[in-house]
TrEMBL record:
It comes from the Eukaryota. Pfam families: Transket_pyr, Transketolase_C. This is 3-methyl-2-oxobutanoate dehydrogenase (2-methylpropanoyl-transferring). Transmembrane segments: none annotated. InterPro entries: THDP-binding, Transketo_C/PFOR_II, Transketolase-like_Pyr-bd, Transketolase_C. Keywords: Oxidoreductase. Coiled coil: none annotated.
Length: 378
C-alpha cells in the first residue's frame, strides 16, 4: 500500500499561521458598560418625557433590586390589601428586594412561607379570591415548576370559571428570571390564556410595570426579573407612584432598515450590536422592547416591520417554540408582502444550560451582528 505523503507547511521565519490578538476596539463580545448604555436614564432629565411624568417629578438613582423594593413599598403603602410573601421574604429575600418591608408594614402583610412553591401560589390564589392583592415571590424561575398546576389550572382559569359572579380579581404572582440557574421559562407561561407575562429591562421600567401589574389588572401577572440586572443596571427612578401600561411595546431607537425585537437583558447586547452594525454596515436599526411577552403588542412590531422590511427577534430562552417563533410567525402572516428578507431569530440553543457553557449557548453581540449582516444582504 502506497504511503500517504502530506505536504509540509512552510512557515516564513518570524511569522505565525494565525492572526495576532484583536485590538480592544475590534472586539464585539465585550462586557456591557451599564454606566454608558443609552438604554438607562443616567440623569433625571430624560425621565419625565419617556415615562410621561410631570416635570416636577423627583427621582433617585437605583439599581434593579432597589427599584423593585421601592415599587413594593409604594404598593404596600398605597393599599392595605397588598400583601407580600414567599421564601425568605421577611428578612429581605436572597436578592434583597424586600429589605425592611416587614419592619415597616408588619408581619401580617410581609412574611415568610414554607419551602413549598405550590403552597405559595395556592395561598396567593385564595387570598386574591377574597379581595386581597397578593404578591407571591418565587425565588428563582426554575423553582416555579411544582406550582405549574396552580398557575395553569387555577389562577389562569379563575375569571373564566367564575364568570359574572364578581369574584374575578386574582392579583399578581412574581417570579425571578435567573441566569445562574440558567432557565428562561417565559415561553411556557406565554402558552397559557388568562395570565400576563412581563419582563422589565431596567429599574424605572420595573417599578412602573410592577405597580401596574398590582393595581391595574384583573389577570394574574407573571413578573419575571432578570437576576443579572439586579445590581448591574443603575438609573434614575421616579420617587412617586406611576405605572407603565402592560402589553405595550416601546421603540427604544428609531431606524429605517431593520427592526430588532427583544426584551429584558438581551436588549443591552442588542444595543451594542446596533452600534457595531451601524458603524460597519451603514444600516439604520430600529430597536423595540416588547416589555410584555404575553399578550404582546403586535401592532407596534408590525408597523415597524412594514416600514423597515426586515426583522430579527432576540431572546435568551431556547429558540425552539419560543417567543421569537410567535413573533416571526405573526410578521410572516400579517406583513409578508412588505418583507425584504426572511424573519431571523437569534436565541439560546436548544439544550440544557450548564453554567460553564452559558456564554456559548446564549446569544451574544457577534451572533446578532452576523444575523443582521445576513438579513440586510439577503
Amino acid at each position: 500500500m502506497a504511503s500517504l505523503r502530506l505536504p509540509r507547511l512552510i512557515r516564513p521565519s518570524g511569522r505565525r499561521l494565525y492572526s495576532g490578538a484583536a485590538s480592544p476596539s475590534s472586539r464585539l463580545n465585550l462586557p456591557i458598560d451599564y454606566k454608558t448604555t443609552p438604554l438607562l436614564h443616567h440623569t433625571s432629565s430624560t425621565l419625565s418625557e419617556s415615562l410621561e411624568l410631570p416635570g416636577s417629578t423627583t427621582s433617585k438613582s437605583m439599581n434593579l433590586y432597589q427599584a423593585i423594593n421601592s415599587a413594593l413599598r409604594t404598593a404596600l403603602a398605597k393599599s392595605e390589601k397588598v400583601m407580600l410573601f414567599g421564601e425568605d421574604v421577611a428578612f429581605g429575600g436572597v436578592f434583597r428586594c424586600s429589605m425592611d418591608l416587614q419592619t415597616e408594614f408588619g408581619s401580617e402583610r410581609v412574611f415568610n412561607t414554607p419551602l413549598t412553591e405550590q403552597g405559595i401560589v395556592g395561598f396567593a390564589i385564595g387570598a386574591a379570591a377574597q379581595g386581597m392583592k397578593p404578591v407571591a415571590e418565587i425565588q428563582f424561575a426554575d423553582y416555579v415548576f411544582p406550582a405549574f398546576d396552580q398557575i395553569v389550572n387555577e389562577a389562569a382559569k379563575f375569571r373564566y370559571r367564575e364568570g359574572a359572579t364578581g369574584r374575578s380579581r386574582i392579583g399578581i404572582l412574581t417570579l425571578t428570571l435567573t441566569r445562574y440557574h440558567s432557565q428562561s421559562p417565559e415561553a411556557l407561561f406565554a402558552h397559557v390564556p388568562g395570565v400576563q407575562v412581563v419582563v422589565p429591562r431596567s429599574p424605572s421600567q420595573a417599578k412602573g410595570l410592577l405597580l401596574a401589574s398590582i393595581f391595574e389588572h384583573n389577570n394574574p401577572v407573571i413578573f419575571m426579573e432578570p437576576k443579572c440586572l439586579y445590581r448591574a443596571a443603575v438609573e434614575h427612578v421616579p420617587n412617586e407612584y406611576y405605572t407603565i401600561p402592560l402589553s405595550k411595546a416601546e421603540i427604544l431607537k428609531p431606524g429605517n432598515d431593520v427592526t430588532l425585537i427583544s426584551y429584558g437583558q438581551p436588549l443591552y447586547l442588542c444595543s451594542a450590536a446596533i452600534a457595531a452594525a451601524e458603524k460597519a454596515l451603514g444600516v439604520s436599526v430600529e430597536l423595540i422592547d416588547l416589555r410584555t411577552i404575553y399578550p404582546w403588542d403586535r401592532q407596534t412590531v408590525l408597523d415597524s416591520v412594514k416600514k423597515t422590511g426586515r426583522a430579527i427577534v432576540v431572546h435568551e430562552s431556547m429558540i425552539n417554540y419560543g417567543v421569537g417563533a410567535e413573533v416571526a410567525a405573526t410578521i410572516q402572516d400579517q406583513a409578508f408582502l412588505r418583507l425584504e428578507a426572511p424573519v431571523k431569530r437569534v436565541a439560546g440553543w436548544s439544550t440544557h444550560t450548564g453554567l460553564q457553557y452559558e456564554k456559548f449557548i446564549l446569544p451574544d453581540v457577534a451572533r446578532k451582528l452576523m444575523c443582521r449582516h445576513l438579513t440586510v444582504n439577503s
